[in-house]
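Quick one: structure for this chain?
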Amino acid sequence: MSAVKDVEILTQQRLLKILEDSYKKGTESTDVNSRQLVEDIATFLKPYVKSVRN
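Got it. Here's what it folds into:
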């Protein structure tokens, strides 16, 4: 058995949920800028992105 935990597959539904939540945060808060929203989205997507090192 692998010691590495399997990462959940990023589905279209999950991606839409991440984007909708970020959109809501941006429209509900007057002190959130676009950079913060992009960083939030990146944080949510990080588990789905395979790290590549050159």
